[in-house]
Amino acid sequence: MNASGNRPQRRVVTAAAATVLLGATLVACSSATTATDDASESITLGYTATLSGDFASYGLQMRQGVDLAVEELNADGGIDGRTVEIVSADDEGSPANGPVVAQQFCDESVAAVLGYSFSSVALAALPVYDTCGMPIVASAVTSPELSGASPTFFRNVFTDASQGEAMAAHVYESGVTSIAVLFQQDDYGQGISDAFSEAFEKAGGTITSAQAYQLGSVDFGTVVDTALKDDPEGLFIGGFYTETAKIAAQVRDAGSEVALYGTDGAVTPDLVALGGEAVDGMTVYSGFSTSSDDPDTQAFVAAFTEKYDSEPTSWAALAYDATKVVAQAVSDAGSTDHAAIVDALSAIEEFPGATGPISFDDEGNRLGDLIFLTVADGAFVPVSE
Hints:
Helix content is 41%, strand content 19%. It is α/β, with parallel strands linked by helices.
């Protein structure tokens, strides 16, 4: 990791530590709903995600994007002359920690909150954020339940519904007319597979089978055998990279060359590290590609690679953009007043980001199009049209 440059100021606490600080009992936020507007003081943004455990990679990659964005903002004079700070909390992937971390951020009167690895954690936190009017721009939570769930919630990642529909159209238009579906047994897996299956059948395709599996599973022999017995032309895996890689390996071990399709939850170098040759040729989707010739994308890729000595993932890019969007909203609002920032976020239109132009609909969802990628020689490359 390249540690050159001025690092953003950052404080990190775990959800457990936040619980101790808050006396374990959640209380209503204070009447103050703004950070200080003293021009001599810094502007503090909250960042929370799953930063430990089996699924820490998403949160850690997002934090890299946040840190780079803050470093660039501060090098360019901050937000209207005020330095930007990050206070970070590990939600540990537990919905029970969502309200605890939210209360911490409300009590500290941060200007806005970034991050979130899991929709269930974000959903649990929203009622607390509503009491202090906290603006949130999340980068990895895709559940349709978050659409319009709070007037202060925005996300620059596409929803399960839009992703499932777009992937189904892409698969069907590529010539695949029958497909088996496997999905992890949770809101993410169920939501994305339902959206995919409905759109695929509506297009004229056939779902030959649909089966759930548990996160943490190792042996997928039974579900793989069931999925393959009807001789589908494709296999869609609605889940995270760990299980996706294992399923792909077991499909290939079974002697099948069926076309494999995955989700944005599989778009991480860990998929290739775990799956090896078995994931070569798999098609996935994302909101970001390092191969884009967009000048904003290439500027981000260059800066990220210089800082971290590795190419950015989509999660790093999304969190980088979220940070820049929040900074723009604070500047447009001319204040750290939460309500003013929310209004400014609602008015964001075609903000030039590393992941493309950013706008939000009236439910806080991002507008735009997915990028389809295939794994080739250990890298994610855009699918040729």
